[in-house]
Amino acid sequence: MRFQDFAQTCGQLEKTSGRLDMIAIISQVLPGLTDEELPVFVRFVMGRIFADWSSRKLGIGPNLLYEAVGYVAGVKKEQVIDKINATGDVGTAVEELLELKSQTTFFHEDLELVQVYNELIAIADTEGKKSQREKGLLVRRLLANALPIEGRYLARIMLEELRIGVGEGSVREAVAKAFGVDSSLVEHAQQALNDMGEVARLAKTGAAALEDVKITLFHPVRMMLAQAGSIAGMIEEHGEIAAEFKYDGSRFQFHKKGNWARLYSRRLEDVTAALPDVIGQLMGATDHDVILDGEVIAIKDGRPMPFQSVLRRFRRRHDVAEAQEKIEMVPNVFDILYLDGETLIDLPFSERRKKLESVMKMSIAPQTVSSSQEIIEKTYNDALAAGHEGIMIKVPSSPYTPGQRGKNWIKIKPEVDTLDLAVIGAEWGEGKRAHVFGSFLVACQNQGKLLPLSRVATGFSDEQLAEVYDLLKDTVERKAGKEVTFEPTLVFEVGYAELQASVNYEAGFALRFPRFIRIRDDKDIADIETIESIRARYQRQVNTAQAYEKN
Ligand code: ATP
Fold first, then answer.
1. 225-412, superfamily in CATH?
2. Which of 64, 194, 208, 281 is most buried, with most CB under 10 Å away?
3. ipTM of this model?
């Protein structure tokens, strides 16, 4: 497939709004692709470059791209930025700028889809001191060969903002339709392989290949997540349930083969180097090849510490903090997904737990299995008394469903209303806080677009403000008087007393008594609160108020 044909397909998809129409367009393209093209097409059309399990990163920021576009089009970087601001979209801007170039070049060699992918791999794999310069040269070369329409989608893919409205669900349906396989099989294979590209390649060979998929060691799978719910509701629905402490730490997935091991974070980043202690403990904990799921917590004087702050402190001055404060990193293992070549995610949780118990030499997360509300409530109270967040209730008969926030894991914790919001701007502080940011503008999202929702100025200690300043200072985009705006990278958890309808912020709501709770660096900007969920919360609040008035 030529890259221009891929770009044309993107153009067609961008103009299509109906999901079924999109699925039809994609499913018509898939059967005509070679084995090599199929995975690339599937990832690209979802705006991804590499497999989801892969920690490979392109490493191209907006600046580098704008510079390369400017070079190829024969204009200054500032003009590229002006064009983007004028058109409101980097793709359109690049397309228009490359039209300038195409008026002066006569020779064009067709770019192939797979060739573009290989060039992107080369860009990603450029490392070392001069890597930014080398990446820049490779991007220039790629753009110099691109037609304007190709530039439009290439630029968006490189910045990870393709935004043609094609989600994983649509691609799943399109793969199923194209190759005549059941979409639940495609979904299951995607959960195990964590790469829709590879899944599509298997689907092409038929249903049997999809049924046979196995988890691969060192290809992390997405984490299973939890919903809110109640103890009584779970007992009513399932009878016997399993309750574990809900640890306030950092999620991990541990992969081990022989004496080689890696640790992945909730975002599936390889964090092996950051937690040598934990790796050591887990390595010694079993003689088998395994994938384990768990939560690492920081313990000081026998009590759990707020974990994110510990981790950041560790990163800054590792041994000093450890020696001075005697903080212990404790992994709590609660699930097993793979054992000696066997994929376990389809086994019931109670079976997985048995396997886990049989292969581990270290103690694993304690569990209370019962159908008595009283007993589970006692576990909940014990959890809070011991300084944990609450409990997790798990259905003993349930499979492990990677990436899903289903009804088989339910979290029970004390009610506090908080929102995870992106930090998009700030104002400098005053007095002794004049050298750091003092108040922050935070935003929710509407389909990827950020909508300002509130200012947050309370709840910070001086130490936290210094830390936040450190994390934000290199992401400043614009400065105007006391105000700055940021390239959104950081997520705050913000507590509030009430949601109010408001015209002061673009989101249409404002927070009463917003208060900083903590930094959520286990969350991406894509994971922040959506405007729909805020509307739903607002509606619940209105309903509760009305019910209260009636009584
Ligand atoms: P949210 O994602 O809604 O902000 P959260 O970060 O607590 O909340 P949830 O999906 O609600 O995520 O809860 C699951 C998380 O709880 C896991 O990702 C894990 O980090 C943590 N956790 C702590 N203890 C356990 C446990 N025993 N079993 C499973 N997850 C646990």
1. DNA ligase/mRNA capping enzyme (3.30.470.30)
2. 194
3. 0.96
